[in-house]
Amino acid sequence: MPAARWAWPSRRGCRRRGFRSPHGPGRSWTSRTRPPGPRRSARRTPGPPRGAAVRVRQPKPAGETALRACPRHYVIRTSWVIGEGMNFVATMARLAEQGVGPSVVAHQHGRLTAAADLAAGVPHLVDSGAPYGTYHLTGSGEPCTWAQVARWVFEDLGHDPARVTPVSTAEYNGGTNDGAPRPVNSVLDLCSILDAGFTPADSRAVAREEAAAFDGRRSAHDGCSPRD
């Protein structure tokens, strides 16, 4: 069901019963479509999402608007989330081990977000009694590009990071418009979540930890021997 359709009944129910209304995580459609620069670094909080024009449909902004009518609400925005299983870091690690030199998009900016931080950050807001409103919850540290993340992974696993070739989205898509358009800037301002007493992991550390986890899983697999 589209977010806007369930959000309004949810909002009415929460108001009647005095419940808190968490909503999220909203992903990187909330971000601007220009790369960060000296005057254009991170998306501020709060405020209505911008940059939604890069999507054909806009259910999440409508859902946010509906839920803000509930006085006791939390709206959580995030981007570039990685967790267990196959994700961008794991894919780059696998390519590094296979001797592949991937071409990776280099003009989209953001911060890697650990799924574990999302899982911990949302209940932190609720349990700590943080002020209601909109929060950005992504990795911390300096913004990066997907190509930078790929090079980090190659470096962390002992491979030459120069094997990663930075390309534009158009080059990656072979000059076509195939695939869902992505915002150029997914960097979100973290002031509100930091003020609430929660500090997400540094984006570089998230990449390093996930690369180490991949290496550990590979080593464990290589160490297994068939049963007699």
Choose one word for the global shape: globular
Major sheet: arrangement of strands: 1-2-7
- Name the CATH superfamily classification: NAD(P)-binding Rossmann-like Domain
Strand segment count: 9
- How many domains? The number is 1
Order of helices and strands: HEHEEHEEEHEEHEHHH
Structure annotation, total helices? 8
Q: Which structural class is indicated by helix and strand composition?
A: alpha/beta
CATH architecture tag: 3-Layer(aba) Sandwich
What percentage of amino acids are in beta strands?
A: 5-15%
Pfam family, one: RmlD_sub_bind
Family: Belongs to the dTDP-4-dehydrorhamnose reductase family.
Biased composition (Low complexity): 1-11
Protein name: dTDP-4-dehydrorhamnose reductase
Can you lay out the helices and strands and say which pair or pack?
Layout: H1 3-17, E1 21-26, H2 59-67, E2 73-77, E3 81-82, H3 88-97, E4 103-105, E5 109-110, E6 113-114, H4 115-128, E7 133-136, E8 144-145, H5 146-156, E9 165-167, H6 169-172, H7 191-195, H8 203-223
Parallel strand pairs: 1-2, 2-7, 3-6, 4-9
Antiparallel strand pairs: 5-8
Helix pairs in contact: 1-2, 3-5, 3-8, 5-8
Describe the structure.
The chain is an alpha/beta fold. The chain has one domain: NAD(P)-binding Rossmann-like Domain (Rossmann fold, 3-Layer(aba) Sandwich), CATH 3.40.50.720. Helix content is 39%, strand content 13%. It contains 8 helices and 9 strands. The chain has helices spanning 3-17, 59-67, 88-97, 115-128, 146-156, 169-172, 191-195, 203-223, and strands at 21-26, 73-77, 81-82, 103-105, 109-110, 113-114, 133-136, 144-145, 165-167. It has a 3-stranded parallel beta sheet with strand order 1-2-7, sandwiched between helices. The protein is globular. It starts with a helix and ends in a 5-residue tail after the last helix. The model is unreliable at 1-11, 29-35 and 48-59 (pLDDT under 50).
